[in-house]
Design goal:
- By secondary structure, the protein is of the alpha/beta class.
- It is about 40% helix and about 15% strand.
- The protein folds into two domains: about 190 residues, 3-Layer(aba) Sandwich (Rossmann fold); about 200 residues, Rossmann fold (3-Layer(aba) Sandwich), CATH 3.40.50.2000.
- It is built from 16 helices and 14 strands.
- The strands form two sheets. It has an eight-stranded mixed beta sheet.
- Strand 1, helix 1 and strand 2 form a beta-alpha-beta unit.
- Helix 12 crosses helix 15.
- InterPro entries: Glyco_trans_1 (IPR001296), Glyco_trans_4-like_N (IPR028098), Glycosyltransferase_grp1 (IPR050194).
- This is Glycosyl transferase group 1.
Amino acid sequence: MKKKKIVLMCSSFLPHIGGKEIVVHNIMRLLRDYDALDARLLRCGNFRYRIKNNFPYPYHVYPKLCRNKDLNYFLILLIEKIVFGIDVIHLHGIMDMGMVLNRYQKRIGYKTILTPHGDDILKCGEIGYGERIDRKRELEIRDILKGSACNTAISAIVKKNIDELAEKESVMIPNGINLQYIRRHASGMKAARERLGLKESDKIVIAVGRNNKVKGFDILLAGMATLKESVPDVKLVLVGKDNEKMLSDLVSGYGLYANVIFPGQIPKNEHIDPMNFQTPDRLLLDYYSAANAFISTSFSESFGLTTLEAMAVGKPVVATRIFNNSDASSALEDGKNGFIIEPGRPHQVAEKLSILLNNEKLQQEMGKNALKKAREFDWVNVLCQYAGLYQRIAQN
């Protein structure tokens, strides 16, 4: 049987690390084992054409061939179609190229699958989050989603938004985690704390992400100020680029300098080796392993990947109700493998973390349940869903 030619496209890629970059890398990495599919990654940018050899899968990069953006994409897609063949193009993050890809489907001869990943589909008016806050952008996103051969949703809340805009049913395929890698490299709490220089007696909570309004880190720090009254030896590990610079005034104002640790960005982008890149980074795994609990105070989340990573290490989770609206997040069962709180409520942050941190038996019980649930999201299982979708769309 002739192999189906699958092209994945993404507006940005490694060494930049974000949700969609991690997803595309894992899909490409695992598709190598599928005999019926011939997949490659395609990007357009301000550099001369090359096939990048330092990636474990085919990766084609093109320069700008002309000044007109639409014509540039058309020429690149035409070259790829003629030289290598294209049956399906799967675009992650839809704003940059979605309209153009849809426009040339019939002319060049391929089908588009579109997967939004965050602010290109979700909106939160109370904090001004999302492209769709702008009505003109919302109509553009609607037209992009309507014009595709198929849309996929990484969570229930994303699916709801896609289906309302596109007026057609999307296919829900969650993001995944590298469970075997995580379980192989995650260590015991004591060993991890020794490597990181953390005290065995500390009660450690971890949060991951770069500070912006949607993450609710101001709410988290307000909750920590209350929590330290009942748990004086609590430590918050706040992983993410520039968090210390952006949050130091709040930390100082709440008198939390002895209670907050800022490891910075993990991993540093410039240290990424694409041939061996796996997530989460080994250092981040140590921080997960060292923690008593994981917390997320987000106001909006397309898919809580770091939540699942922490669960895969066997950690109980405290997260906002927004996580009940996504697959990653629906993995969180209130009172069984963690606690659900309302967004924007620092007193609930303090209350639920206090319950967890003061009850070691509850931590262990919820941690076991968290790991059991996380197993459902192994990338191997998720990739089977994508591979099946590619074959169906290519054959229709």
